[in-house]
């Protein structure tokens, strides 16, 4: 009997009570407080650097770290490697190509407007003009510890 009285209290046809209003408002506040977190997970950040440029920087960084000496002549970067080979990165037409000991034609980046290298202490700054934007990265050599 008591159970029926309680159920009648919550599901009565007498109207919208203050308890119902407070319950609905608290549900609304909980759901609205979770909304910024949900939007943050859905939001996708646009890439600031194209994948091809990022891949080029990663590739050249691996070789710069292994190089014994870095020499920059105009828009060409020469890397003297430990095995005696000389790796050259240069702008060839609208591409950046890599050559080892003057042989080979490995194109690493296409549609390049300009490329420049600046030797700095313990590394090099690589600047690429591509798609009307300039992408720049400082690549440091790690000190050899033996």
Short summary of the structure?
The chain has 146 residues and is an alpha+beta fold. It is built from 3 helices and 8 strands, in the order αααββββββββ. The protein has 2 domains: 2-42; 51-140, no CATH class.
Describe the structure.
The protein has 146 residues and is an alpha+beta fold. Helices cover 34% and strands 38% of the residues. A five-stranded antiparallel β-sheet has the order 1-2-3-4-5, with helices on one face. It has a three-stranded antiparallel β-sheet with strand order 6-7-8, with helices on one face. A hairpin with a 2-residue loop joins strand 6 (112-120) and strand 7 (123-130). The longest helix is centred in the first third of the chain and has 25 residues, at 18-42. The radius of gyration is 31 Å and the shape is elongated. The protein starts with a helix and ends in a 6-residue tail after the last strand.
Nearest-integer average pLDDT: 84
Number of beta-strand segments: 8
The tally of structural domains comes to 2
CA gyration radius, whole angstroms = 31 Å
Sheet with the most strands: spatial strand order = 1-2-3-4-5
- Number of helical elements: 3
Helix content: 25-40%
Share in β-strands = 35-45%
Helix/strand order, N-terminal first: HHHEEEEEEEE
Distance between the termini: 87 Å
The main sheet comes to:
5 strands, antiparallel
Estimated structural class: alpha+beta
Overall morphology:
elongated
The parts where pLDDT drops under 50 for at least 5 residues are none
Keywords: Membrane, Transmembrane, Transmembrane helix
InterPro entries: ComGF (IPR016977)
Protein name: ComGF family competence protein
Transmembrane segments: 21-42
């Amino acid at each position: 009997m008591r159970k029926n009285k309680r159920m009648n209290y919550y599901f009565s046809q007498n109207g919208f009570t203050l308890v119902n209003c407070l319950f609905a408002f608290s549900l609304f506040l909980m759901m609205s407080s979770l909304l910024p977190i949900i939007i943050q997970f859905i939001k996708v950040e646009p890439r600031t650097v194209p994948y091809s440029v990022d891949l080029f920087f990663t590739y050249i960084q691996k070789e710069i770290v292994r190089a014994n000496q870095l020499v920059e002549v105009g828009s060409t970067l020469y890397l003297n490697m430990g095995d005696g080979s000389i790796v050259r990165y240069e702008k060839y037409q609208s591409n950046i190509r890599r050559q080892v000991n003057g042989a080979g034609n490995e194109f690493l980046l296409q549609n390049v407007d300009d490329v420049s290298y600046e030797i700095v202490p313990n590394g090099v700054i690589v600047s690429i003009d591509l798609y009307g934007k300039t992408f720049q990265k400082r690549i440091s050599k790690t000190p050899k510890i033996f």
